[in-house]
Specification:
Elements (H helix, E strand, L loop, with lengths): L2 E5 H5 L3 E2 L2 H16 L3 E5 L5 E2 L1 H7 L9 H7 E4 L3 H37 L1
Parallel strand pairs: 1-3, 2-4, 3-5
Helix pairs in contact: 2-3
């Protein structure tokens, strides 16, 4: 397993990581690397502005497809200032909560539908 560095600035061609489309582009890149069983190092060097929208569409989405331990072992972050790191932590917490609740809700819906079919 190797570490693959992804330079955010080069990937999105901007100092501002704000758009959902750019987040989706980063998500696709991370997902491709994860599927090849490699680790990802995200380098935020030269990024001057980051929004939760970008982080949700790139990193938050990962929690819908991978468990927390996998992400923790396969994803690392470089060159992110303290304020943006705090924002990332909030995005991650919300994503974990959202996808946990989503699974519970979907399970409840499935059980309800199965019960209705039995009646």
């Amino acid at each position: 397993m190797q570490e693959i560095k992804v330079n955010i600035f080069e990937l999105i061609s901007s100092h501002a990581a704000v758009a959902t489309d750019d987040g989706n582009k980063l998500y696709d890149r991370i997902n491709k690397i994860f599927k090849s069983k490699n680790k990802v190092v995200l380098d935020f060097n030269n990024i001057e502005l980051i929004t939760s929208t970008f982080l949700n569409s790139s990193i938050g989405r990962l929690y819908g497809h991978y468990d927390s331990n996998f992400i923790k072992e396969h994803l690392s972050i470089n060159n992110l200032n303290d304020d943006d790191l705090l924002l990332l932590k909030k995005v991650v917490e919300r994503a974990k909560e959202y996808f946990t609740q989503k699974e519970k809700m979907e399970k409840g819906i499935r059980e309800t539908l199965e019960n209705e079919e039995d009646n």
